[in-house]
User: What shape does this take?
Amino acid sequence: MGGLAHKVPLLATYFLILGLASIGLPGTNGFVGEFLILLGAFAANWVYGAIAVTGVIFGAAYFLWFYERSMLGPLGQGLSHAIPDLNPRELFICVVLSVMIFWIGLYPAPFLRTMNGSVQAVVERLDHQQPKAVAGGTRHGARGHEQAVEGRGALSMPVRPRASILPLHTVN
Assistant: This one.
């Protein structure tokens, strides 16, 4: 199997756009999502971040290998009349979804702003469920004061209180 791009170029192009978005190409919606996930993973623990980056690299390598084998190269036997290319209705849907992929990737602020309130509520709920003990016996609740979390060891990084999970203006 291979060479489908020769037979169905519109489908192959759309499949490439979806694949590049899924591996987190900058300028696509996948990049925004992967960036925020990796940011959170590294904030939790650098080991989690390293594992996540390794997964991103393997996922990207697998998609590119799969795309090359299925869409590029010589047309496989029996594929000359296997499937037709996109019809106008399907092409319209693919174009609309592609516009959304690039819109979210290039200007994610409206989408992030919309979900900021609910994400902040979840983060606050999770923060209230965790033990509030702090190294040194004192706790600084005021914004801007740094606090060290107990149990992380002497070389731990100070943790700032979270004012917002996303670096955007709050929605009223």
